[in-house]
Amino acid sequence: MERQQIWVICPVCSNKTRTKIRKDTVLVNFPLFCPKCKKENLVTIKNGITTIIKEPDA
Fold this sequence. Notes:
Oligomer: single chain
Number of strands: 5
Shape: globular
């Protein structure tokens, strides 16, 4: 049985990234790069919901 895969959507520009996940995938502190807006964001993905992690400025 093949599981459904979905594209991860960029939280900045709402376009598809080059990353695919399954519905049950959990990513914590994942560096997500968007080829469209050329930005990399640290994200957490759980239950298909993407949350940007705000890092304190060094």
